[in-house]
Amino acid sequence: MRNHRNTIKRVLQYIRPYTGRIFCLLFLAALTVVCTLYTPILIGKGVDTIVGIGDVDFPALAGILIRLGVIVLMTAGAQWLMNLFVNKVTYHIVRDIRKEAFAHLQEVPVSYMDAHQPGDIISRIVTDVTQFSDGLLMGFTQLFTGVLTILGTIGFMLSIDIRISLLVILLTPLSLFVAGFIASHTWQMFQAQSEKRAEMTSLVEELVGNEKIVQAFSYEERGIKRFKKVNEELRVCGVKALFFSAMTNPATRFVNSLVYAGVALTGAFAVIGGRMSVGQLTSFLNYANQYTKPFNEISGVVTELENALACAARLFDFMDSPAEEPDAADAVELADADGSVKVEHVSFSYRPNVPLLQDISIDVKPGQRIAIVGPTGCGKTTMINLLMRFYDVNEGRILVSGTPVRDMTRDSLRRNFGMVLQETWLKAATIRENIAYGKPDATEEEIIEAAKKAHAHSFIRRMPDGYDTMIAEDGGNISQGQKQLLCIARVMLTCPDMLILDEATSSIDTRTEIRVQKAFEELMQGRTSFIVAHRLSTIQGADRILVMKDGNIIEQGRHQELLDQKGFYASLYESQFAVQE
């Protein structure tokens, strides 16, 4: 319940900037309610003009009908304007929340992205916000008018007959109790439904995004089983939430019908006793019906709001996740790195109880080519993550151009590095836009020159629209090798001071790889380069090879020096080339 209150407070914070529009909305709601509640008075007076058979006061009735028509037109106009304000306020609030959530997404550390499924984050920013907006829209339109209708109806009923009005008011808490009891049980169910919906989104995103792998490894049956399991769990959560929310309206309607019957019976005796006219009874019955109707609407709104608040709670939970540690206030801008990198007694682990890197020290001179090799899981990629400051070290420090990376802005540090990874990434855009991803203001000549250096120009020219060819999401309409060439061209265009190549040519055919290696040779001239490689043939010309095992650098030196040592590197090399020899 405390989380429930905190969520409501957060929602009110987003509503506060639109206070002026909210007051206009409340005024229009009040005008709509007053006009609606004045209508039964006119109807009652109209009934009283009919004294008996053939005895009707037509002039008075005509005046009443004219006033009734004006009131109906005013009500329609006020409702239209109210709905217009409601939509504008709601969509502005949702826009603000979604903008803030997406901005926070840019600030969360890589560790958060590694620990959460992409589909879950997408579900929170897209699906949960949509669900929240639907509930908020209904809350604004029906909750305000419902509360005002109840208060206004009580006032009009008291003006007609106090005793019957008190009967209606005394029976009201019963309806509120029923609605409140059901609402208290729907919160947790709708929250569970939102979590299962996010799990479903993550599963579908995982299977659809890796469809080729699914088919290649005949995972279809197991995928269907996983989908059926999550789908069934979502069905159970949805049915429970729907069952309780569906109970609200019938239960309150039953209570309200009892109220209406009590008013009708008491009012009939009042007419017989001469305490009120038939027209007044007609007005009172209309008010009794209008008085109970908002409770039905509010009970429905409550369930929608419970769903909306459950979605909002999940979204706020994401928005409250710790952001990446900001750059220091006096952080310097790394303008032009000289290429020197020092790693001093660095230790790091992703989890406190599972050590990985232990007391690593490296001194890299400007322009050196450093190769990092070792078995899977030894810490090669972790070293790259620390160099790029995707993660901060637990102990020790890393210096670039003589300055600790913690004392410089992340953005300037990363601008001085160029990365080509084994896992390629392309956005849904033209080939030109993908190459210019890191340099949006690049000229056509610069883009073509970078593509030529990466040996991508020839296949781009064969594409239907050349450099204007649209690439599907993640490059789904080109080959893996072509995707990697475009990623290499992207780095060629930015010409960074330092390079990180993580199996950068792993998906390229041997002939093209030789050409690209020559292009890399030119690009690496005078630039400090870190090369992560499994194929040892690609790093024989490195100035220094770091051999890693179990988070430690166990050997380092040039290729031939390490072979002569006949240690771990030599055994790795022999295992790769023994067959050929």
How would you explain this protein's 3D organization?
The protein has 581 residues and is an alpha/beta fold. The chain has two domains: 2-319, ABC transporter type 1, transmembrane domain (ABC transporter transmembrane region fold); 367-393 and 406-577, P-loop containing nucleotide triphosphate hydrolases (Rossmann fold, 3-Layer(aba) Sandwich). 64% of the residues lie in helices and 10% in strands. It has a six-stranded mixed sheet, with helices on both faces. A four-stranded antiparallel sheet has the order 4-3-6-7, covered by helices on one side. Strand 1 (50-52) and strand 2 (55-56) form a beta hairpin. Helix 3 (58-105) packs parallel to helix 9 (278-319). The longest helix has 53 residues, at 220-272.
List the helices and strands and how they pair.
Elements: H1 2-15, H2 19-48, E1 50-52, E2 55-56, H3 58-105, H4 110-115, H5 118-160, H6 162-209, H7 211-216, H8 220-272, H9 278-319, E3 341-348, E4 357-364, E5 369-373, H10 380-387, E6 395-400, E7 403-404, H11 410-415, E8 417-420, H12 431-435, H13 444-453, H14 457-461, H15 480-494, E9 498-502, H16 510-524, E10 528-532, E11 544-549, E12 552-557, H17 559-565, H18 568-577
Parallel strand pairs: 5-10, 5-11, 8-9, 9-10
Antiparallel strand pairs: 1-2, 3-4, 3-6, 6-7, 11-12
Helix pairs in contact: 1-9, 2-3, 2-5, 2-9, 3-5, 3-9, 5-6, 5-9, 6-8, 6-9, 8-9, 13-15
